[in-house]
């Protein structure tokens, strides 16, 4: 899975943070396929004795064309410049 960007976003509806992964593969392969891949990767990580346990429900995949990504990107730093670390529209970059 190609990843163009990733950031933490606070979901007001659920009152929790989600890891948002931005990938062009969402448009090309569809989100269901990507979520299946992520679930498999998380399962593999968790089965390792020194593995990482990360809640699947805290991951969201979006297209680079999504309104969420466009809004965060627009508010996260100067156009054409580096993304500034910190908060932008309820996201932490």
Please describe what this structure looks like:
There is one protein chain. With 93 residues, the chain is α+β, with helices and mostly antiparallel strands. It has one domain. Helices cover 33% and strands 24% of the residues. The chain has helices at residues 25-29, 31-47, 67-75, and strands spanning 5-11, 16-22, 59-62, 87-88, 91-92. The chain has a five-stranded mixed sheet. Strand 1 (5-11) and strand 2 (16-22) form a beta hairpin. The protein starts with a strand and ends with a strand.
Return the structural class.
alpha+beta
Helix fraction by DSSP (H/I, runs of at least 4): 25-40%
Which H/E pattern describes the elements?
A: EEHHEHEE
What Rg, in angstroms, do the CA atoms define? 14 Å
Secondary structure tally: strands: 5
Average per-residue pLDDT, rounded, comes to 81
Total count of domains: 1
End-to-end Cα distance = 20 Å
Number of helices: 3
């Amino acid at each position: 899975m190609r990843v163009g960007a990733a950031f933490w976003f606070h979901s007001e509806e659920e009152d929790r943070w989600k890891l948002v992964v931005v990938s062009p593969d969402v448009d090309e392969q569809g989100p269901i396929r990507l979520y299946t891949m992520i679930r498999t990767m998380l399962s593999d990580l968790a089965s390792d004795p020194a593995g990482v346990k990360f809640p699947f429900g805290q991951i969201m995949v979006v297209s680079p064309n999504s309104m969420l990504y466009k809004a965060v990107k627009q508010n996260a730093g100067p156009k054409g410049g580096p993304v500034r670390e910190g908060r932008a529209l309820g996201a932490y970059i």
